[in-house]
Input
Amino acid sequence: MIPRIALTPGEPGGIGPELAVKLASLGHERGNNNHAAGNGLAHGPAQVVAIADPELLRTTAAQLGLPLRLIPFDPAQPPGETPPASLHVHPISLAQPAVAGRLNPANAGYVLETLRFAAQGCLNRTFDALVTGPVHKGIINDAGFPFSGHTELFAEIAGIERVVMMLAAGELRVALATTHLPLKEVSDAITAELLEQVITILHRSLRDQFRIPNPRIGVCGLNPHAGEGGHLGREEIEVIEPALDKLRALGLRLLGPLPADTLFTPPQLARCDAVLAMYHDQGLPVLKFKGFGHAVNITLGLPFIRTSVDHGTALNIAGHNEADCGSLRAALAQAVQMAKLRNL
Ligand SMILES: NC(=O)c1ccc[n+]([C@@H]2O[C@H](COP(=O)([O-])OP(=O)(O)OC[C@H]3O[C@@H](n4cnc5c(N)ncnc54)[C@H](O)[C@@H]3O)[C@@H](O)[C@H]2O)c1
Ligand SMILES: N[C@H](C(=O)O)[C@H](O)COP(=O)(O)O
Output
């Protein structure tokens, strides 16, 4: 079976369209004598369906001087491999032509439409997985659409109360208890119920999607030195430890809560299959320091497979032909691998 993967390039003024074209062109450079790498994949062939404005992709390819053939996507046909230097495409029109490096609130509705179409297509099994390029959260909000991230939007579309954001760079996997939340709201958000839900989703995903039979999860404290016995904060004693004890009683292998600056050291990481950070900037700087450019963002707990890049819209280099598609390539490879495992 050839997995059919939806690809949303994201913010049209950012590097997303360039990355999509570059991803297709990896197949052009490698594909002719290496069929398995036909569309730049490390894990074999796939049908890659860009959900985007075709004119934006054509213009971007022309500006980059890269070949690109756009093949109309027909969901009624069985998925055939996307050939090198090509993308299948489901067209959605921009409201206004995009300018590289410039945000335009008029196109925020377009971005959301591509995401909604792709997510619905995953829910109704038109697609086997979804790979997302970077969006600009600010401009979508400026345009009047409350939006804190793909993760939260897809949970809402799927009607799921709790999902988990995890980024992976090789063997380092970092999941987050809270995602796109102002720092001053984090402490109140960390409840025993939240931790139990998040850790359960993380445990199940590591076991079922990453085939780690009895995963060990390292859990960070919230406060410096995990609260120093209550002298530097009491969330560890009052919320985190009781939640971990409850889950341990169910057989989960949990380490912590440990001070984050201890847990993120090589000897402790070697004991863990994943680390749970309490908030975005406790975990992601470590992950991105190690893996920026080839790490993958994976949403756990959705009823469909969703992976994404480890970076943002990079407006400062959009249109300069400097964007590296390593993370998009890794996200696609991860999605293909997960889709194949699910379909075994
Ligand atoms: N997956 C996503 O949708 C996603 C992820 C992270 C950030 N964002 C959003 O992106 C916007 C900009 O965020 P930011 O400026 O903090 O981070 P950013 O990742 O866009 O840029 C940080 C730095 O990394 C560089 N960079 C990023 N990706 C690159 C690539 N593929 N190749 C070469 N250089 C690259 C940029 O040029 C910049 O110097 C924000 O709105 C943020 O919310 C979206
Ligand atoms: N938190 C992510 C990061 O820093 O890479 C990023 O903002 C993307 O999140 P979503 O996949 O939820 O949009």
Confidence is low (pLDDT under 50) at residues 29-38.
